[in-house]
Amino acid sequence: MKIRPALALEAGRLAFIAQSQPMSAHWGEKGMAGEIANASARVWCWEENGEVLGFLALRLAADVCEILNLAVLPQACRKGIGYGLLSYALNDVRKSGGRTVTLEVNVHNLPAISLYTKAGLKELGRRAKFYDGKDDALIMGICL
Ligand SMILES: CC(C)(COP(=O)(O)OP(=O)(O)OC[C@H]1O[C@@H](n2cnc3c(N)ncnc32)[C@H](O)[C@@H]1OP(=O)(O)O)[C@@H](O)C(=O)NCCC(=O)NCCS
Question: Burial of 135 by CB count in 10 Å (0-12 exposed, 13-18 middle, 19+ buried)?
Answer without folding.
Answer: middle
